Amino acid sequence: MTIIVLFLAVVSSIAAWWLWHQGLTSKPWLEEGVIGDARAPGMSTTSPSKVGLGVFLVVASTLFMLLISAYAMRMPARDWLPLPIPKMLWLTTGLLVLSSIALQSALMAARRGSLAGVRGGLVAGGVSALAFLFGQLVAWRQLSTEGFLLAANVANAFFYLMTALHGLHVSGGLVALGRTGAKVWSDDQFELPEITASVELCAIYWHFLLFVWLILFALLMGWGSDFLEICRQVFADP
Fold first, then answer.
1. How far apart are CA 20 and CA 42, in angstroms?
2. What does pLDDT average to over the chain?
3. CB-side neighbour CA atoms (13 Å) of 28
4. Treating both helix axes as pointing N-terminal to C-terminal, what angle do 115-145 and 192-220 enclose, rounded to 10 degrees?
5. In 47-153, which ranges are continuous DSSP H helix?
6. Taking the CB of the first residue and of the last residue of the chain, which one, N or C, has fewer CB atoms within 10 A?
7. For the ranges 66-70, 90-94, 141-145, 189-193, which has the lowest average pLDDT?
8. Could you tell me which residues come within 8 angstroms of residue 217 by beta carbon, excluding any fewer than 6 positions away?
């Protein structure tokens, strides 16, 4: 439990720093000066949407880390029987990498003012993400066909839970990506700053999804066992 408490303390510190950096702890009604210029000196001009995304990522990170901690604590049990990882997960990992690269490309195109580049990046990122989800379902189907069902073993349950939770976050990201795409393909006047901000939020979220998935993938493949063992020894309760 020590490592979990330590992680939560670190996450809380990061969240507090983020909120302070965005100026959410300031009291503009106590500031002297022109009313229209209520921003305190040195306060970040980050949009509320980016602040909201940052807070959400902190919460999501906490959720995933608690799940990973539970996974690590459950692994040494005698009834833990690791299931074979489908080769499809290698392909889906590559697809998510491509999706993240495509969103970063769309962001760079938006900053250059290239509408065609933004559209191409969004399409490539969305298609790759959809293919990632489809590949995850294929992997689930393969495991269930081979008899590795959800209730058959604790390790199976963790596999389905972690991949499903991550897939749910990808699905939510696709909704946001669709809204951004609707703005880009809208018949209204193309407003570059607004589109750039939307694409940037999508890119940040996609990089987060990729980072989380790489950790989960390494854990499921068994590569993180040695690291987890070191953590258990370092942070073991006396």
1. 11
2. 79
3. 10
4. 30
5. 48-74, 88-112, 115-145
6. C
7. 189-193
8. 89, 93
Nearest Cα neighbor of 7 from 89, 66, 71 is 66
Check: CB of residue 223 under 8 Å from CB of residue 85.
no
Here the tokens at position 44 are 């970040």
- Helix (H) or strand (E) run with residue 70 in it: helix 48-74
**Nearest-angstrom CA–CA distance, 83 and 89:** 13
Average pLDDT over residues 199-217: 94
pLDDT tens for 32-60 read 444 444 444 443 445 788 888 888 898 89
Are the beta carbons of 8 and 62 closer than 8 angstroms? Answer: yes
**Separation of alpha carbons 198 and 152, rounded Å:** 43
Under 8 Å between Cβ of 118 and 109:
yes
Sign of the C-alpha dihedral computed for residues 199, 204, 207 and 213 taken in this order: negative
Question: How many angstroms separate the CA atoms of 115 and 113, rounded?
Answer: 6
Residues belonging to the chain: 238
Strands (E), 43-197: none
**Contact assessment for residue 96 and residue 199, using Cβ atoms and an 8 Å cutoff:** no
Q: Which residues of 90-102 are buried (b: 16+ CB within 10 A; e: fewer)?
A: eebbebbebbbbb
pTM for the whole structure: 0.77
Question: Residue 224 belongs to what H/E stretch?
Answer: none
